Amino acid sequence: MSYWTIRRRDVLTGYVFILPQLAGVALFVLLPVGMAIWYSLNDWNVFTGQQTFVGAANYAALADDPQLPKVLLATTLFSGGVVVLNIALGLLIAVLLNRKFRGVTFFRTLFFSPVVVSVVAWTLVWGFLLQDNGAINGLFGGGPNWLQHGDTAMISVIFTQVVRSVGVNMVLFLAALQGVPGELYEAARIDGASNRSVFSRITLPLISPTILLTVIVTIVGALQSFAQIAVLTAGGPELSTTVLVYYVFQQAFKFNDIGYGSTLALMLLSFVMVLTLLQWQLRRKWVFYEE
Question: Where mainly found (predicted)?
């Protein structure tokens, strides 16, 4: 009997096809995470190249860091604002544009176009617009320097992030809405259902898998937002917009504390994993899957 049976050849073919993906995961995910874990256990002087094993000292330093609570608060406010506004506006725009009228293609392109613009270029332009003598204040006849005050700085970075990225969720929601069978809407209207009931009892359940996807992607994207903060506010004023990913950059590359920066990076990774797993577990309660 030949060793290379049809089943074994099929299995080998499958592994050959997924090998590039596995290699990419190992090289660009597992290896960096492993290196971050090792660096977090050491005190690394980047100038001399000397590493000193310190064990859990960097993890213990998390509890003694007076700035970390402010950073976590800023991260929560920024991520929460981006996720809520991005999902709500993306769904609203998709519902409004999920119909046939003159110019619908133009409006779809208009809302999606910021997505393809460079993050740095987009942020630089908004940095000029939001200055005290910028176009925004000129439009309203005066106003604050939006990026120099704590409350308005956070609102500004949330706004610029949402305006740039809402087009992605709009496209995903549009695809989901166009996949809802039209006969379900016709049956609901025949039964006398209101528009609100149709939306809550037919549309939302049928697009709930897409909502789950967009929530996960938007949360991960918000927690990883770096360029917007770095260019617009550099974490200021007074840490009001210093989110965790920017704080990792500061500790590791500005203050050259690679060990503590790696520890913060692992904290960020754990937040992303926990939130993703939590949403994935809760999907059984609110995500509708057709049998």
Answer: membrane
The model's pLDDT over 184-233, given as tens digits with 9 standing for 90+, comes to 888 988 888 888 898 998 999 999 999 999 999 999 999 999 998 999 99
* Beta bridge partners of residue 53, listed in sequence order: 42
DSSP the chain: --SS-HHHHHHHHHHHHHHHHHHHHIIIIIHHHHHHHHHHTEEEETTTTEEEE-TTHHHHHHHH-TTHHHHHHHHHHHHHHHHHHHHHHHHHHHHHHSS--TTHHHHHHHHHGGGGS-HHHHHHHHHHHTSTTSHHHHHHT----TTSSHHHHHHHHHHHHHHHHHHHHHHHHHHHHHTS-HHHHHHHHHTT--HHHHIIIIIHHHHHHHHHHHHHHHHHHHHT--HHHHHHTTT-STTTT--HHHHHHIIIIIS--HHHHHHHHHHHHHHHHHHHHHHHHHHHHH-----
Q: Residue for token digits 């090289």?
A: 27
- The radius of gyration of the chain's CA atoms, rounded to the nearest angstrom, is 24
pLDDT value for 248: 96
Lookup: tokens for 247 = 């704080």
Q: What is the pLDDT of residue 3?
A: 72
Q: pLDDT (tens digit, 9 = 90+) per residue, 157-192?
A: 999 999 999 999 999 999 999 998 889 888 988 888
Quick count: other Cβ atoms within 10 Å of Cβ 248? 22
The residue written with tokens 């608060």 in the block is: 73
End-to-end distance of the chain based on CA atoms, in angstroms? 42
Other CB atoms within 10 Å distance of the CB of residue 264: 26
